[in-house]
Here is the input.
Amino acid sequence: MLHKFNDATPVEIDEAMQIAGEASQAYRKFSLKQRADFMKAIAHDLENADELLISTAMEETHLPAGRLQSEKARTVFQLNSYAEACEKGDWMQVSIDTEDQKRNPPKPGIRKMMIPIGPVVVFGSSNFPFAYSTAGGDTACAFAAGCAVVVKAHPAHSNTSQLVADLIMKAAEKCNMPKGIFTHLHGAGIETGKQLVLHPETKAVGFTGSFAGGKQLYDWGNQRKAPIPVFAEMGSVNPVFLLPGKLKTDHDEIAGMYAVSVTLGVGQFCTKPGLIIALESDELNKFIATLAQKIKEISPGPMLHPGITKAFNEKRQKALEQNGVKEVAESGIIAKGNEGLPTIATVSAQIFLENSLLHEEVFGPYSLIIQCKNNDELLAVAKALEGQLTATLMATVDDMNQHESLVDAIKEICGRLIYNGVPTGVEVCLSMQHGGPFPATTDSRFTSVGADGIKRFVRPLAFQNWPDELLPDELKDGNPLKIWRTINAEIRPPQL
Here is the structure.
């Protein structure tokens, strides 16, 4: 039976942040291995969690067991891989410039490393109850960085969040972590989030969700007496550009790929392709006809919760009502209750450029095809788009060579540029960039997926003229941690 949780009171929030501040001061002194062992303990317990966790998540999110099992496995992998990266220490970007007393003026000895920023508040996302939630990437990165974490559970899967939080607390106890290293709070109201962001002990925020929610957190973070970084991923329409050469030879194959990508997970991925952009042609007409037929054959699916279904239906209908927008196809099966109806529509580039509402994300199984009369319109559409998590080019090598200005324009608006693929599917690896120019995220310099995400929750500190015995182990001459370091502008491996 699902339990209803009360919102955290102002007193409870203050206590949670105060103890998180104390825990951060203690935890930052823990070795990289101790941090990694803690994260691996969480991963172990999550991997071996009983069926109650999956069944609860199924009931709260309407996601199928297979998808949830896969996402749980991804979360375990994130914890383990970020733990390994934590212990390896590359993310600390250790650099050493040794002193030179013979130089005039004498050069001081300066050594720099990244240190924990302090308590991190994490807001769980609605569409990933494991991977971007309580024990998800933000939490794992913060633990690796040496920060205490306070999670505000997403109200759409609060019971699932609580079960995962209990696992983290047990792992913290087994690993002798400081009290307050992790705190879990509930709060459906806006005041809970506001107090968490504005609390003096909060030093950074991680968020995945809507533009409205992320922008509000960002604004609060910057309105503080001491502003803090708010790393918010706020959605994306992930444009796909179909170039003529590729479309001429592979229009059927591309249509099949994108029918699946648009409707994967009932379109509830932040990397769903929401715009498909191409030049008017017979091949584009064939692509549209094939895509329409495949969309008609895809059944509606249950969405995460009624609020998301309501928003999808309203935004879908509003988009379809815009002047010049024509529905191409929808599922041949009637959507029921909480289900999202797969839908494809089309519009001319001229109307798209004149109507900013058509640029907005419709979160769910909906995509808009933009038909351009010529290359100038194709380029104009690319330049009119706001920041995106991803952009995709379906193209031949000749297409790419013939559209250099278009490719350059697309590079300016995205964090990940895909060639002949689909944007759905975000690999957890060091090279992944899951972030992009505003409004996709609040800081395009960082990623929320991959071990580079650890860098969001640290800051640089330089030590000048310190005796070796007083320096942190990371900076000592003997390199006791055996990590890679840059010494006098030369990258050096650990001496094994």
Observations:
- The mean pLDDT is 97.
- The CA atoms of residues 37 and 83 lie 7 Å apart.
- DSSP finds 15 helices and 19 strands in the chain.
